[in-house]
Amino acid sequence: MNNGADRALPTASITALLRRYARAVTIDELRVAIAGSLNFALDGLGTGDVDASDVDIVIERPKSREHGDYATNVAMVLAKRAQRPPREIAEALASELGCYAGIAQVDVAGPGFVNITLEAASHAEVARKIVEAGSNYGVGDALAGTRVNVEFISANPTGPLHLGHTRWAAVGDAIARVLRAAGADVAREFYINDRGVQMDMFGASVMASAHGEPVPEDGYHGGYVVDLAAAIVAEDPDILSLPRDDQLVAFREAGYARQLRQQQQVLDLFCTHFDVWASERELHGSAAVERGLERLREQGHVFEEDGAVWLRTTDFGDDKDRVLVKADGEYTYFASDTAYYVDKRARGFDVNIYLLGADHHGYVNRLRAVAACAGDDMDVNIEILIGQLVKITRGGLEVRLSKRAGNIVTLEELVEEVGVDAARYTLIRYPADSPLTLDLETITRQTNDNPVFYVQYAHARISSVLRNAQELGIDWRGAEFDPGSLAHERESELLGSLAEYPRIVASAAELREPHRVARYLEEMATDYHRFYDVCWVLPRGEEDVQPLHISRLWLCAAARQVLANGLDLLGVSAPERM
Q: What residue ranges define each of the domains in the chain, with the CATH number in brackets?
């Protein structure tokens, strides 16, 4: 079959592109090669009228090394459209694909799988690519031009952040990080619920504590309220002399300011930083609620009934219509929710992601309906993610860490108990929509059965190797890198794992699942340890430095870079010594 070399390409020379990078065939470049070869293969089969440009070409790493470095099922995907047996398409594709530099062998297996083996030098060039890219390796542009608002935690400023908030503090921040790595313009946002009855009840609770009186039954309890009251009085003793109504306001505002500051400080300690702190009060004070209501009226989904103003959310899947303005003229909480969404869109965000707690399932349909009522696409412009509950155990028994906050576990106390890295990594490591149990003994153990220790240790181990190389006077980066020398099975496994990293990051961003990065890092760390156990990196004794030593040091540096980049996406440190 003609290999396509004498044909005019349908787009600016794919062949030239592949040959330009012939010694560095990455997964993305391999996908380009498959796409180009696929069109030629279909031409040769007489199905040139079939447009394969929209085919999602899935490339995977085979479980067995005997099946090559990569495999694709694209022939089976296209079989029905092309009206050809999948194996026939696969064989034609294999023939075309085999002409590309950097590809050593292409085989067809089973009903139509195409297995691809890269030349050793081509495969190993990923190590050079990673080292030269540094912290930019894994950064993509799939979401370039997309503005994303990620709102998470959004706790009332009436108490410490608890364990449920802690999960979103880690996961929400990691989602924002992977979205940025995928090219999106991301804003992390915290919505301060600083308006309404709960704020007055908070002020009444602090005031009662200051006077040594019982806290209202439905007020805020816990030692932190007593501490707040004492701190406020110590700073302003005259507050106790104010009339009771004025005193309530004064305690409410002083308590609010202190509690919000405490939340901000503990989040800073937890390496979770927000770009925007949005106040519900300011939303109302800026007339944003009125503007939001007007936007909804323009779309024709607002109606009046029994003296109240309603939003017809049932038009878009909600179980009942929602009241925006009560008969007495007071705005509802839902009015704030709608205005807040409209305000985000007015600020230019294309996608608005809400991360809500396990008790907020009822908000999913109503918030999606708000987007639709505002004239937006509720499958594009808004996303609601629900996080499940977290509990803490020690020795198989559930424990309570809180000393000052009543019957809850606080973020601050969890960090004091296990550290920032262990807490963040463990909270991110699991899908947020599944319940999670944190075992304190496991996540603080300095052994390989503790995932965060296992990954961080891999980074520290490589750092030690590179320090030893420097002490031996080996300038690996200044020496010539021979990728063809990295032909050992364990080297090939590690290289394949490193090449997967950009795809993992892109997938984590697309699916809003940063736990994929954590699980990848654990697998990659295993591949590194397996490589290190059988492939000697540094010269032994009086042995001279060989090209293979240099190449393996490049590979070590590449592995360390990927571990550092991945840990950074999780907001976890990459220690050089442990």
A: 14-118 (3.30.1360.70), 147-190+273-386 (3.40.50.620), 197-269 (no CATH), 447-569 (1.10.730.10)
